[in-house]
Amino acid sequence: MEYQKIRPQDINYLISVTSEDRVYYGEDINEDYSHDEMQEYGRFMPEVVVEVLTTEEVSKIMRYAYENNIPVTPRGSGTGLCGGAVAIHGGIMISTLKMNKILEIDEENLMAKVQAGVLLMDFNKAVTEKNLFYPPDPGEKSATLGGNVMTNAGGMRAVKYGVTRDYVRGMTVVLPNGEIIETGGKVIKNSSGYSIKDIMIGSEGTLGIVTEIIVRLLPLPKKAVSLLVPFPSLDKCIETVPFILRSRSIPTAVEFMQREVIEAAEEHLGREFPDKSADAYLLLSFDGNSKEEIEEIYDEVAQLCLEKGAIDVLISNTQERHESIWSTRGAFLEAIKGSTPQGLDECDVVVPKNRVADFVKFCAQLEKEFGVRIRQFGHAGDGNLHVYACKDNLTDEEWKPKVKEIMERMYEKAIELEGQVSGEHGIGHAKIGFLDESVGDITMEIMKGIKKAFDPKNILNPGKVVKYNA
């Protein structure tokens, strides 16, 4: 399809349904809108950016865009890592950042209703003040809840509590033609036909624009403790995880990390890590409603780790140590990016929990084979791994063929291990080829059919997840 380029009358219409101070075009568009957190996947400037405040504004914009064949890209904080919120075909970018109201915290039903632009960190603060708990815990706390829903974000607590999909109960969605639908609601059970809500979750803004979300909450656990467990080798570290998960103790999080990544984070933060005696570490967290309950759980896990070869078990029992450990873990991505200013590429795979060690070892072999620095960390408790190939001082001629083959080999290995090509970051436009290879022709055709059913003109976030010509 030939998309319509933005004309003066289009700008005038957008201003008429919003306001002049919320419509940006030409040189007034901030360069940040041309990319997400992975600038290596290219820069694509939208022709116009509109900051929306209400569902009705989004509806009017989408109806106009649909009638005039103008592509539309929805965007929250732009913290994605696959180019999912960049305007690769220009057109209109709808920013939901100013749709940032927490509409309701329903303490009786343990539910909350929010606009899509509410930041995760602001929402967590608001519910914690009411002794409530929103378990999904993606690493980027400045992401929006709408963005989390559109990528089905996971995070470190998924091993115990699940991912975003497990907490979304309802949503308001604007369809590509401007129609508004409500799906789900403040109910726990729902067997009322096809679950449009669940089709929307993880759809990366290709099927509709979510404007309001109802999520379920839990009572806030009263106590939490973390264990930092150093191991003499990465092999021993990773191989211990299945034994922990098979025990009767269920950690809130099970993270693995290597000394090289920790040192990069130390330098990035200007803060020392509590321990540097080992090559690899497990970071475990536990929560519960009493000190005695948690102690019983973590004592058993600590003993198991020591039996499997851990050097020590360090208890994060002070606020200072807790902040030092978790702030370091939270800085891993930025630290790796800072260590290779020439660029990097990311692999976000998920494999069965008992195959994590196989994949980690495979990546170490690739590092030696290609002579490319590869750094990895991830959620060992749910099998989701984040692997970064660093360009460092390689020339473009050296880097491009190497990183292409490295990524292909990683995704092939994940599939061989019965995994998937994305655990929580999504597909965007950067990973479409890998998705195609992993799910096969029949599944891709089904996905294209779903996209066509919602968006027959292919104007909403075109070129993401699946490709087709309208």
UniProtKB/TrEMBL annotation:
**DNA-binding recorded as keyword:** no
Necessary cofactors: FAD
Report domain FAD-binding PCMH-type positions: 41-220
Under the heading InterPro entries, the entry gives: FAD-bd_oxidored_4_C, FAD-bd_PCMH, FAD-bd_PCMH-like_sf, FAD-bd_PCMH_sub1, FAD-bd_PCMH_sub2, FAD-linked_Oxase-like_C, FAD-linked_OxidoTrans_Type4, Oxid_FAD_bind_N
User: Which keywords does this chain's UniProt record carry?
Assistant: FAD, Flavoprotein, Oxidoreductase
Name the Gene Ontology molecular function terms of this record: FAD binding; oxidoreductase activity
Q: Which family does it belong to?
A: Belongs to the FAD-binding oxidoreductase/transferase type 4 family.
- What is the recorded name of this protein? Glycolate oxidase
Which source organism?
Answer: Anaerobranca gottschalkii DSM 13577
